[in-house]
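Journal club prep — side note

Before the paper discussion, L.F. wants everyone to see what a predicted structure for a comparable chain looks like in token form. Sequence:
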Amino acid sequence: MSDLQRLTIRIKKGADDRTALSCIRADGTTTWQRLEGSQAQFFPHHDLTHYAVESVLGFRDGFYGLVSAGWDLSDFGSPWPRGKIPPQAGIAEMIVGFFDLERRMGEKGSADDLNRLLADYSAERGLAPEQQLTEVKDNPSHRGWLRPKDWEKSLSDYIAQRAERLLPPDQQLQVTIDDIKLAGSFEPWRGPDAQDIRFLKDIYPPRMDLHYRLTAADGSVIREGTSRLRDLAYLQHTLPTSTDQLGYDKRMVDDWLRREFAAR
């Protein structure tokens, strides 16, 4: 763990069978919670499983990563004062819940069962498995400063924000990105100083394959379909700002949203 991620986790069981979880961050601030009854029996195992899962998988935005970043334990629940948890934290919770079920039932689940559970969870939330995305497959050495979780969250948030502006308040748009290749590409043969530089050329246009569903307030489907987004002439257009590393990709999404949903 880096210093920003470093966290001291303490789980204490009292003589009265109550338990307490406290987390001390790198800056010395603390968040803690005391539990009793059935919760005192359940959560120590649950919280330890979170530590094991998130450590082994290297999750930085799981439960403990968020606590390290400043979330209080009381933030994980209604009314969710910090908003929805990040996708990685949701996936961690699904895995931990799978192991919770194993303990409760006394039966060992299979890897296939867990994989199906995670695939369904990701599909419902528009999270395609990272390893299936062209952008990830074409960059096995993880070059660049943006990691998949960074650009996935940025694009997901951007689509939601732009759709909210375009659509009537009683409609909701759900988008699942099935495949994506961001604008530009890496050219590692240029030497060690160019390993993390993304070169923008005509031969590296942004592209995105997606599935969308537009629903009414009562949940009924207004329209559903698939789209293949391509911007082969992306370098011939100026951007509002040159500091956004996803500027060309977001402009391609903007063009699609306006074509499909504006003034309908």
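L.F.'s comment for the group: The CA atoms of residues 103 and 143 lie 40 Å apart. Keep this in mind when we get to the figures.
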